[in-house]
Amino acid sequence: MQIKVKCSCGEGNCPEWAIVELQGVVQAQPSFENRLQNLQIGVLCRPSSQENYTFTVGYHELTGTKVSLKKPILVLRKIKLRKEEEEGEDDVNSGGVELDVIGVIRHKILFKTRPKALISKPQPAVKEKATAPMVLH
Amino acid sequence: MDIIDPQSGCSGGAEAVLVDEKFLPEILHQRVTLRGQPDEDAVLCTVSKTYAVKFVGTSNSVFLIPPTDKVSNLCNNKDDNNMVVASVIKVAPGCMELVEVAPKLDKLKLLLSQNPYSFSESSDMDISEEREKTRIGLYRWDDLVDRLQASDKELRMGLQSLSAIEIDGYWRILDDKYMNAILNMLLHNVILNDWSINALNEDEVVGVLETDGFPRNIATHCLQVYCCKVDEGVGLSTTWKLDERRICVHLAREILKEGKMKIEIFMEKWMRRVPDGMHASFDMLEGEVLKEKLGMDTWVYSFSVSSLPSTPAERFSVLFQERAKWEWKDLQPYVRDLKVPGLSSEGLLLKYTRRTQPTMDAEPIFSAR
What we know:
heterodimer, A: two-stranded antiparallel ribbon, B: alpha+beta, five-stranded mixed β-sheet, three-stranded antiparallel β-sheet, 22% strand
């Protein structure tokens, strides 16, 4: 069995993706568990021109830095191929699978310190209906 | 890029694969594939190398964020500073790491041995479609790629080491009797036609073998297996010379097919078979023949490295089953072809053998761990 790995972006055109990495788990409040799509996780800021970042999730604030990856990470997507039906033959196995490289990741924003609890809740950046506070575990 | 549509959530099943920068050009040029049967661990193959794919998990939360230059219209508050929204499409549970490994080619010999090309086949002129379908053990290049976990280059080298030949689109190995017959015919003709063993004319040799009943492509294959090219004649026929070692080894193996024999008897038979102008010496047979002392006599028998497994653990297991203790000079020919990326030959010995040295000046002995 063979699965081809290819990149349809063309040489040098592979879009650069990003990774935000933190220790632990981000969870939605129970009432929002079924409506994760478009739910705001938090706010990522770079306060100065240096590579320091803050990530605010609910009432927690994390600080982190941008790190270059020693080995770049490729993002692959599975594509199911559809074989053309052959005349008179019962094509039970309709095609195979291909892996498409859709992005390259060379850096990540890594948060590895304990989150700081903000004393007062941050001002919601958007209206109530579009967001829900999230809790960092 | 449709998959990054935030409306559809975590769609498309994006996976993260950790790769070295050097893979990128290969992938961009469509030269990378995953290979394996459904019940095997997948390997990733470039044109020339094979890599094991290992999943490395993480307990961290890794948010995968595709690029976007859209300012989202989710923020429909007028007082809002236009914030850029980056959509997280997936929390990656980990990464796939690639580790170079030796290709898995033992299966190749197994597959091609299912239906070796023999005399009965070569004389059979009638190959009806029906007969072709009922034959098992016939594999085309694509069939082999489908079943084996090796890169194209490694697969080709594997086929070459088996002296396989492509006949009618199928890769075949010639059965022993057939190989033996054609070589003997070649050697016979060398004497008959008074050819120089160091200057064989391809057209002439192939022509004679054809009249002796061997198909042209197989005659040419015989030259490739048992001879070395001397001259790539431009427009003229290529010149070949007999490969002394290959032929002497083949003849030795033929003799030892009868079984173990005393070394003196073997040497006598061997010397008689070797063509004029060739010199056979016992050290040509390292990795092919083993000596055994029984009382006052030394006996020899066939034990070819080419019949042993290619994975280190199994290779050493078979070697120590054959003989509990080995001296390095006897062991070396049976392990020097083992290739494990990242492991030196000393490392291999350390990993799979126990080394003892009775006294300072004695030869070190290797045995099973």
